[in-house]
Amino acid sequence: MTPPPALRFEGSARIGGTPVFGPISLCAGAGEWTCLLGTSGVGKTTLLRLIAGVDEVTEFSGMIRASDGVPLHGRLALMAQDDLLMPWLSVIDNVLLGARLRGEQPDRTRAAKVLDQTGLTRHAGKKPRALSGGQRQRAALARTLMEDRPVLLLDEPFSALDAVTRAQMQDLTARLLRGRTVLMVTHDPAEAVRLGDAIQVMAPDGLSAVPPPSGPAPRPADASEVLKAQAALLASLRQSA
Residue 221: is its pLDDT beyond 70? Predict the structure, then answer.
């Protein structure tokens, strides 16, 4: 796979003349996992939707681009908090949905490999209603992987899961998305310090960086350095509120 680019965002956002955020400047490093946190309503999801090109109500003034100068269109995939599975389709057909919507020939062989990667092979023919919450998020991850994009946008994809399933999904996603440029919005300091190569706290007046722990992700949740970084991040979030 071609090395992924860094993702650069600079600008301000307004809705109906009311400021949402900005001006801010954000860089998600090439091949790194950047975690974005902040209080509710500060504009994190709006920023992600602007990058993804799916926000039709926000007025944006600024620049969104890849570091290699190639347009981002067709090189992004978005994974949201809701799995957004089509209830009338089987798991494998949900994974193949992107190709079908683009009028492409579905690659069922590759889809089967992706389902194997995400531990869903024996659930391939099931409808979403027959899956647990964790399995549904695995199916959403499989659909994201099927798109095979170098830049991934994750909007709190694990927040609705129980603690054990959330940790399992963090481990799986960190492994399967390694080497891609990932920008993830999260409300969970513990998640950010486990997964982030870079951590940014968003406030109305801009962004502030919080150093992540050393070592590759996913980091042990109970490691002393991870717990120390979690406390520092929580303090930074309180200051930004």
Answer: yes
Phi/psi-derived region of residue 27, left when phi > 0, alpha when psi is between -120 and 50, beta in every other case: beta
pTM: 0.93
If we measure between CA atoms, which residue out of 177, 76, 159, 165 comes closest to residue 117? 177
Give the pairing of strands 181-185 and 33-38. parallel
CATH 3.40.50.300 in the chain, residue ranges: 7-75+150-240
Tokens of 74: 């067709």
Surface-to-core class of residue 177, CB atoms within 10 Å of its CB (0-12 exposed, 13-18 middle, 19+ buried): buried
Residues with Cβ within 8 Å of 105's Cβ and at least 6 positions away in sequence, in order, are 99
What CATH class is the domain 7-75+150-240? alpha beta
